[in-house]
Amino acid sequence: MAQNLVVETRNLTKVYRDFWGRKKKTALNALDLQINKGEIFGLLGPNGSGKTTTIKLLLGLLFPSGGDAFVFGEPAAKVEKNERVGYLPEESYLYRFLNAEETLDFYGRLFDIPAAVRRKRAAELIDIVGLSGDKKRILREYSKGMRQRIGLAQALINEPELVILDEPTSGLDPLGTRWMKDLILDLKKRGKTVLMCSHRLDDVQDVCDRIAILYGGDLQELGDVSKLVQDQKRLEIRATGVQLTDALKRDLAAAIEKHGGKLETFGHPTTTLEDLFLRIVEESKARPGRRYLPPSL
């Protein structure tokens, strides 16, 4: 296994069978995948496509029916390698009668982290995930978004080199979603490798370097996000300092037709709804009492 590879699968297959050993479902079929050190890798696909099965195989929670999976050059079934892995499941299975500090202390003990180091890391992580004001509340009183935050802190308590995130923005509002994406990008800056699954394709497009798309247990697409989302059949032109006039339209149409193309549309570029929402919130904070007034008729 190459030195810069963190995850590698070779012909990885998982077949679920019934009580009598008959094939019930092929959850994953001959998956070949490589995830490099320091990249954010997105695993996409509809429900039942094999994403969760892949994660469980990498964590050693399931054994493959065929093929191999390696993490840090070690077989995925080797439990010791999980000391270098952080995992946030889609539904965090945390003890709801503990508070945030007790939760992180408990998971720190599982990694044999010294008490002084546990307390220091717990305090830092609670501050990072924005729960300093709620650290004494038991998790049963937390909203889903708050449980997602403490779940992420739990996944980072052991300073992992590989962070696996299953639906990391689930239950978060737009502000929390932006915070989560910024944190994932910060993990990359700190040299971490991130494997994330998400149904929210805009989140994946914002943070991932490469993606793999699964369907029916088969790998359907793999590559750089920036290249995969390009529409090679269309050309986009953007300009500033010029007014959109009929004369400009005619000139551009003529130039494009001269080179064998056809002018389709003109218009102004758009932002995303997320960016619009965040901008309005920030402007509202900066200008208390700001209200929307409908234009006079």
Summarize the topology.
Layout: E1 5-17, E2 23-36, E3 40-44, H1 51-59, E4 66-71, E5 74-75, E6 85-88, H2 100-110, H3 115-128, H4 144-156, E7 162-166, H5 174-189, E8 193-197, H6 201-207, E9 210-215, E10 218-224, H7 225-228, H8 246-258, H9 273-286
Parallel strand pairs: 3-8, 3-9, 6-7, 7-8
Antiparallel strand pairs: 1-2, 1-4, 4-5, 9-10
Helix pairs in contact: 2-3, 3-4
Explain the overall architecture.
Helix content is 34%, strand content 23%. By secondary structure, the chain is an alpha/beta fold. The N and C termini lie far apart (69 Å). This is ABC transporter, ATP-binding protein. Keywords: ATP-binding, Nucleotide-binding, Transport.
